Amino acid sequence: MGCTNCSSGRGGLPAGCKNNGACGVNGCAKLPVFDWLANMSMPQGMPQCDIIEVRFKNSRKEFYKIADVQGLVVGDAVAVEASPGHDLGMVSMTGELVHLQLKKLSIPASGPFKTVYRKARQTDIEKWEESIAKETETMMRARSLALELKLSMKISDVEYQGDGNKAIFYYTADDRVDFRELIRHLADEFKIRVEMRQIGVRQESARLGGIGSCGRELCCSTWLRDFRSVNTSAARYQQLSLNPQKLAGQCGKLKCCLNYELDSYLDALKEFPENTPKLETQRGSAFHQKTDIFRAIMFYSYTDDPGNFIGVPVSRVKQIMQLNTSGEKPEALLSEKEKIKEIKLPDYENVVGQDSLTRFDNAKRKKKKKKKKPELQGLPQAAVPETTPVRTESGNPVNNKNRPVRHKNQRKGNGPRPQKPTAD
């Protein structure tokens, strides 16, 4: 679904969307919400929800209670209560969907909630834009002050309040930081009320955004709101190599997407034996090498031939384990009926007739000499008839195609011109 909050621009693309309508997250804002109850009518007599969700800069969202303001829809700019003064934000959720969101976040519906003052006026929006324009300069100055004070902290973002009287400084730090002196310098220089808020590295990635290794925008900055713990056991269950450089995201922690398919792997692993002991056969002992979970195949190799991996179905592995428990040994890992036939995969290199990518690497072939005509091949060299060149009136010889033939020492286009006869 394309962005619905932007006007059409060049080439049918939304003009106001920074991603030109290709964000794929159902809107131009961060953490958008799809209202799946929009086309459903609520039962009669059911009171309407008087709470709305308001989104501020990046991923900060809060719930507010509607006082006397009516007719609010998603995307409206509203002035809400703040401490002190007021703040400006965009309505991101209304209606009965708010009750479900409160239940999911374990927030009591009775409150307490701050109130919505009014829809934003033009003067409120202009003042808000002036405050936003100062955020980058304020952040750079705050970083320089933190370096001067030798504070081990990283200021990643600054968010001004809608009325410009307060600013929230988001920072990350490994240890406890005494930033009281920093607050004094910031308050004296910018004449604002300062609030320092510590966040984690995952919250920092959600606020700043970026592109993941999959080529898409980070999940935490587009739709993911709750951060669940990710362990290395999730990678082990999915048969992934424990490489920190590949498993870690841009925040430095394990990728949140490791949990997306974990349930499917756990369901498939229920059919596999709990441990992978060696299998005894008449051919010899076989050891487990790797597992293909969704194909339900376990690969074994014999002790005397460790490089030859044999794919054994899980049912056959369980059968051999039962035989070994009773003291019996099968003839081989696979019977004649259970042997997996090798399927020759099609060669997709030249399926549609394209040339090879290495066609320019080959050495150039030497041109073959032209063969003589068959009627002249048997004759000796002296017997080959020579054609007598025909000369024109000016004395220049011509070839068989009646074209003038240049002399050996005559250059192309620069040869000597014939002299005109002069009268005596």
Describe this entry's structure for a reader.
With 424 residues, this protein is of the alpha+beta class. Among the domains are: 47-120, no CATH class; 129-204, GMP Synthetase, Chain A, domain 3; 272-325. It is 21% helix and 19% strand. The protein is built from 11 helices and 14 strands. It has helices at 97-104, 122-133, 135-148, 180-190, 201-208, 219-222, 232-237, 244-247, 262-268, 314-325, 374-377; strands spanning 51-55, 61-66, 77-81, 86-93, 114-119, 154-160, 166-172, 193-198, 279-280, 285-292, 297-302, 305-313, 390-391, 397-398. Strands 1-2-5-3-4 form a 5-stranded mixed barrel. β13 (390-391) and β14 (397-398) form a beta hairpin. α3 (135-148) crosses α4.
Structure, briefly:
This protein has helices spanning 97-104, 122-133, 135-148, 180-190, 201-208, 219-222, 232-237, 244-247, 262-268, 314-325, 374-377, and strands spanning 51-55, 61-66, 77-81, 86-93, 114-119, 154-160, 166-172, 193-198, 279-280, 285-292, 297-302, 305-313, 390-391, 397-398. The protein is an alpha+beta fold and 424 residues long.
- How many β-strand runs? 14
Sheet of most strands: 5 strands, mixed, barrel
CATH architecture of the domain at 129-204: 2-Layer Sandwich
* CATH third-level topology of the domain at 129-204: GMP Synthetase, Chain A, domain 3
What is the chain-wise order of helices and strands? EEEEHEHHEEHEHHHHHEEEEHHEE
Please tell me the overall pLDDT.
Answer: 79
**How many H/I helices?**
11
* Strand order in space, largest sheet: 1-2-5-3-4
Distance between the termini: 97 Å
